[in-house]
Write a structure and sequence with these properties.
By secondary structure, the chain is mainly alpha-helical. The protein contains 18 helices and five strands. The two termini are about 40 Å apart. The structure holds protoporphyrin IX containing FE. Protoporphyrin IX containing FE binds next to helix 3, helix 7 and strand 1.
Length: about 425
C-alpha cells in the first residue's frame, strides 16, 4: 500500500518522538563522560592496571570474567561487587560467582580514583574501563569505553542464577544471550574471552572418563587432549582441582587461537567445544579463527555488553566503596536526620522565585557529589544568565550536607562565584525539572 506523501513527515515525527522517549527512558553511556568532571580517570585506571598486570597477568582474565558476570545479571551496575550483609546474600556469594577473582584490584583502583576525584566515578565504570585495559594488556584490541553507569543500590544472590551454565546446550545459551539483546554472532565473539584464563579439573573431568554416563571420553574432545588431560586431572575418585588453560594454544595471550583450538577438538569447557559442533555456531567459530574478524566482532559485542541495563542517577549512586552502598559507609548525616517537610533554599546566594527557571538556564558546568543518600549534581549558572537568575528561586529538598561543602567549594571555586543552584537528582519531585 502506498504511503501518502503528507503522512511521511508525520511518520518521521512519530519516529523521532518515539526514539527520543526511548533514549530518555534508557540511561546510556557516553565516551568522554568524565572529561570535565574527572579528566584523568582513564589514565589513573590504566596505570593501576599496568602495575597489577605486570605483577600478576592472570588479573586480565579475572576482570574480564567479573565484567561479564556483573553485566549479564541486572546490567553493568557493579551489583556483583557488593558484599553480603545482615544475612542478605548478594550475587558475589552465588555458587556461580565463587571463583570470580579480582575484587581487591577494583578496590585498589577505586581508592586511587577517589583520591583524585572524590565521589565522581562509579564502580561500574571503573570495572568497564579496567576490563578494556585488561584486554589490551593481554594483547587484544583497543576500543573506547563510555562512562555514566551508576552503581546499584541492591544485589541479590538469586539474580546470578541467570548466568549461563557450561553444561547447557548451544540453543539454551543462545536463548539466554538473545534475551539480553545479543545475536548469535555476539555470543560466539564474547565466548572468545575464553582465549584467556583457566578452569579447574572438576568442571570438565567427566568429559575425560565418563561422558554422559557412557564410561567413555567425550568424542568431541581430541584423543590426544584426553590422554594429556587425564594426567593433569587423574580419575582417582576425588576431584583434582588443578588449573587447566581454557585456550590450549596461547593461554595468556588475547588472540584467535581459542577458535583454532576448537576446530581441533581442544575445547576444555563443554560449551566451548559445542560451539564448534553446533550448526548454529560452527561457521562463526571458523570465521573467528581469523584474528581481524574476531577482534572487530569482539569489540562491538563488548561495547554492547557494557551498555546492558545501565542505571541512571535515579536508580543508582556513585558508591564510595565498591563493596558497600553509601548509606553503610558514609558518616551520619550532618543535617537534621528527618528531611524538612517543605523545600528549603540553598544557604548560599539564594535567588528569588522564577517559575521559568528551567527554560532559561543552560548549565555550563556540573559537579557530581556522592552523599549518604545518593548523588547530587550542583549546577553553576553561566554568566549571561546570572542577572536573570539573581531574581530566581531555586528549591531544594534540603541543604548541601556540611561534610560535602568543603569539597563543593573546592570544586566550584564557590567563594569567587555568586550564583549556585543545587538539585538532588534522585528526587522524583524535581525530576520534571531535570535537563540532563
Ligand atoms: C555461555 C557463556 C559462558 C559460560 C557457560 C562460561 C563459563 C565459564 C567457566 C565454567 C569458567 C571456569 C571457571 C572456573 O573454573 O573457575 C569460565 C572462565 C572464564 N570466563 Fe566464562 N563463561 C561464559 C561466557 C563468558 C564471557 C561472555 C566472558 C567474557 C566476556 C567470559 C570470560 C571468562 C574468563 C576470562 C574466564 C577465565 C577466568 C579466570 O581465569 O580467572 N566467559 N567461564
Amino acid at each position: 500500500m502506498a504511503v501518502r506523501s503528507a503522512s511521511i513527515p508525520l511518520l518521521v515525527l512519530q519516529v523521532l518522538i518515539f526514539s527520543e522517549v526511548f533514549v530518555l527512558a534508557h540511561a546510556a553511556t557516553r565516551v568522554g563522560f568524565y572529561s570535565s568532571s574527572c579528566a584523568r580517570v582513564e589514565t589513573i585506571i590504566k596505570q593501576k592496571m599496568q602495575a597489577h598486570f605486570s605483577s600478576d597477568p592472570t588479573i586480565a582474565p579475572a576482570l574480564l570474567r567479573m565484567f561479564f558476570h556483573d553485566c549479564f545479571v541486572t546490567g553493568c551496575d557493579a551489583s556483583l561487587l557488593l558484599d553480603s550483609s545482615h544475612g542478605e546474600q548478594t550475587e558475589k556469594d552465588n555458587g556461580a560467582n565463587l571463583s570470580v577473582r579480582g575484587y581487591e584490584v577494583i578496590d585498589d583502583i577505586k581508592q586511587a580514583v577517589e583520591a583524585a576525584c572524590p565521589g565522581i566515578v562509579s564502580c561500574a565504570d571503573i570495572l568497564a574501563f579496567a576490563t578494556r585495559d585488561s584486554v589490551v594488556l593481554a594483547g587484544g584490541p583497543e576500543y573506547s569505553v563510555g562512562g555514566g553507569r551508576f552503581d546499584s543500590l541492591t544485589s541479590s544472590s538469586s539474580d546470578a542464577d541467570g548466568l549461563p551454565s557450561d553444561r547447557a546446550s548451544v540453543t539454551t545459551i543462545q536463548r539466554q544471550f538473545a534475551s539480553h539483546g545479543f545475536s548469535v554472532k555476539d555470543m560466539v565473539a564474547l565466548l572468545g574471552a575464553h582465549t584467556l584464563g583457566v578452569t579447574h579439573c572438576g568442571t570438565f573431568s567427566d568429559r575425560l572418563f565418563n561422558f554422559r554416563n557412557t564410561g567413555e571420553p567425550d568424542p568431541s574432545m581430541s584423543a590426544d587432549l584426553v590422554s594429556e588431560l587425564s594426567m593433569t586431572c587423574p580419575n582417582r575418585g576425588g576431584v583434582s582441582n588443578s588449573e587447566v588453560a581454557l585456550d590450549q594454544g596461547t593461554r595468556d595471550v588475547f588472540d584467535s587461537s581459542f577458535y583454532t583450538q576448537l576446530t581441533q577438538g581442544h575445547g576444555i569447557l563443554l560449551i566451548d567445544q559445542a560451539l564448534n559442533e553446533s550448526p548454529l555456531t560452527a561457521e562463526l567459530v571458523s570465521m573467528f579463527t581469523n584474528q581481524g574478524a574476531f577482534f572487530s566482532s569482539f569489540v562491538q559485542s563488548m561495547i554492547k555488553l557494557g551498555d546492558l541495563n545501565i542505571k541512571g542517577p535515579n536508580e543508582g549512586q556513585v558508591r564510595l566503596q565498591c563493596s558497600k552502598v553509601n548509606s553503610q559507609t558514609m558518616p551520619p548525616p550532618a543535617v537534621p536526620s528527618s528531611p524538612p517537610e517543605r523545600p528549603t533554599t540553598v544557604p548560599i546566594a539564594p535567588p528569588r522565585r522564577n517559575p521559568e527557571f528551567r527554560h532559561h538556564v543552560v548549565s555550563r558546568r556540573r559537579f557530581h557529589f556522592s552523599s549518604f543518600d545518593g548523588p547530587f549534581i550542583v549546577e553553576e549558572i553561566p554568566s549571561p544568565a546570572r542577572r536573570f537568575h539573581r531574581r530566581s528561586h531555586i528549591r531544594t529538598r534540603r541543604p548541601v550536607p556540611v561534610f560535602l561543602r568543603p569539597q563543593l567549594e573546592k570544586s566550584t571555586n564557590l567563594r569567587k562565584r555568586r550564583v549556585i543552584t543545587r538539585k538532588r537528582i534522585s528526587s522524583s519531585r524535581h525530576s520534571r525539572h531535570r535537563r540532563f
